[in-house]
């Protein structure tokens, strides 16, 4: 579980206080406007409670279910959109002229936006602390369920037109699967990072790999006889017996699989040099062939 730092707590507290102050000012503005039109404080208070107050209640409900690790029900999500609209429509209806209509229609937005902002901020804090986004999981679950249904219809429905529509709907839903899923995103990034690392390793080895210097040969002609005596500069060195090419590739693939199982990384050029007595260039070419066969 991630803990909030002192700086994060300070900034979030200031942001929450400003939102709360904006909501109070907006609610008071709506209260004053309605009281000026009807002359009754109780009516104005009821209007504020029905519009901005309802938005605040719905936002608190969403925060509560988010803290419990659950997704907000559909009525709550719909209400968060409708309550501000209702408050603005009421303000427009009681206005006497165009100027008052603009002011009365905009005033409820202060408390409504503050309530939704506080609710959204609280949900984001919960997601940061727990690493679980209930809303994203709900959306992904709905998308996967609909995708499974449309795929089944596209595969087995007797009507060709219905199958065609279901196929198109399935492809549209496929774009929504995994959107907003932080855990899925982190896993995909880890997989891609591992593949990019292996590819970059192979590319750099091919570009900057240098071959081991071959032993120099010395020749000496004695007298007039056309005989050449050749001596190796590294006499006494035992040359490894090179297996056939097919056997060499087979052993290299086996060595690569063992490296992946133990280190989760491809076999290195150094390991191929030590195992088969190859030069760096030869080991680089052999490694490229093994990795190329695995990718294909």
Automatic annotation (TrEMBL):
Keywords: Membrane, Transmembrane, Transmembrane helix. This is Uncharacterized protein. The chain crosses the membrane at residues 12-32, 44-69, 76-95, 101-122. It comes from Streptomyces radiopugnans.
């Amino acid at each position: 579980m991630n803990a909030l730092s002192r700086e994060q707590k300070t900034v979030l507290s200031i942001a929450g206080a400003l939102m709360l102050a904006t909501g109070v000012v907006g609610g008071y503005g709506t209260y004053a406007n309605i009281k000026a039109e009807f002359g009754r404080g109780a009516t104005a208070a009821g209007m504020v409670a029905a519009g901005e107050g309802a938005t605040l209640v719905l936002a608190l409900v969403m925060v509560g279910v988010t803290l419990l690790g659950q997704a907000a029900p559909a009525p709550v999500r719909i209400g968060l959109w409708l309550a501000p609209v209702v408050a603005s429509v009421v303000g427009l209806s009681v206005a006497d002229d165009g100027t008052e209509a603009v002011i009365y229609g905009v005033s409820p937005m202060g408390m409504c936006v503050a309530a939704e902002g506080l609710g959204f901020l609280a949900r984001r804090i919960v997601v940061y602390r727990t690493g679980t986004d209930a809303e994203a999981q709900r959306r992904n679950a709905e998308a996967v369920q609909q995708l499974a249904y449309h795929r089944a219809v596209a595969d087995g429905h007797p009507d060709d037109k219905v199958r065609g529509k279901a196929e198109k709907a399935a492809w549209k839903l496929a774009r929504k699967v995994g959107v907003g899923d932080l855990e899925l995103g982190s896993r995909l990034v880890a997989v891609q990072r591992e593949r990019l690392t292996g590819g970059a390793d192979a590319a750099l080895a091919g570009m900057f790999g240098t071959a081991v210097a071959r032993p120099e040969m010395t020749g000496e002609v004695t007298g007039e006889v056309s005989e050449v005596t050749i001596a190796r500069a590294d006499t006494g060195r035992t040359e490894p017996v090179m297996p056939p090419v097919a056997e060499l590739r087979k052993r290299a693939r086996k060595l690569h699989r063992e490296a992946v199982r133990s280190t989760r990384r491809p076999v290195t050029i150094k390991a191929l040099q030590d195992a088969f007595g190859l030069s760096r260039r030869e080991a680089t070419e052999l490694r490229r062939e093994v990795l190329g066969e695995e990718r294909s």
